[in-house]
Design a protein that fits this description.
This protein is mainly α. The chain is built from 7 helices and no strands.
Length: 173
């Protein structure tokens, strides 16, 4: 059931909050998505605690979600650029050579197998660092482990991936 206080705040400030979110994410439709998600979180928070400045709290949720979205999109762009560079390095651009395609698929399978061999915690740490772009401290907080443990897991993953790529390169020569 909708809380009338949170609903009235949402209705009163919706347009301004969407403009605020759009100034951060630079896209009106994404801004609306951010505001809708923020409203759901805001409403849940209104049920759990009494707030001195609910409007300010709503804006803070919007800002945090919009900033997270920008960070995630930036990271996704970096990963796509790295992938494109790797594809170009393998020679898989315009000219689609079957041998090169097979080689790239085999290398991807080798890396995938190495990642699947990781412990669940190492896999999660790797994912949060590589694809979510989280800091070591952020990962440690999220997973309730020490920063040193995060550092150790990342080092383990990188050693495993490096060894896997070396084995692949030795076999493919």
């Amino acid at each position: 059931m909708l809380d009338q206080t949170s609903l009235s705040i949402y209705n009163e400030h919706r347009r301004a909050v969407i403009q605020y979110a759009a100034s951060i994410v630079r896209d009106g439709s994404l801004a609306e998505d951010v505001v809708q998600e923020a409203f759901l979180r805001f409403q849940a928070a209104m049920h759990q605690e009494r707030m001195e400045n609910p409007i300010g709290y709503f804006y803070r949720i919007v800002r945090n979600l919009a900033t997270d979205m920008v960070r995630t999109e930036r990271r996704r762009g970096e990963i796509m650029a790295e992938s494109a560079a790797h594809i170009g390095w393998l020679g898989l651009t315009e000219e689609r050579c079957p041998e090169r395609h097979t080689l790239a698929c085999a290398e991807a399978d080798c890396i995938r197998a190495a990642i699947e061999g990781l412990s669940e915690r190492c896999h999660r740490v790797f994912y949060l660092r590589r694809y979510e772009g989280m800091t070591l401290a952020g990962i440690a907080d999220t997973m309730d482990i020490s920063v040193d443990a995060v550092r150790h897991d990342i080092k383990r993953v990188m050693k495993l991936l490096t060894a896997s790529q070396r084995r692949f390169n030795a076999l493919s020569l």
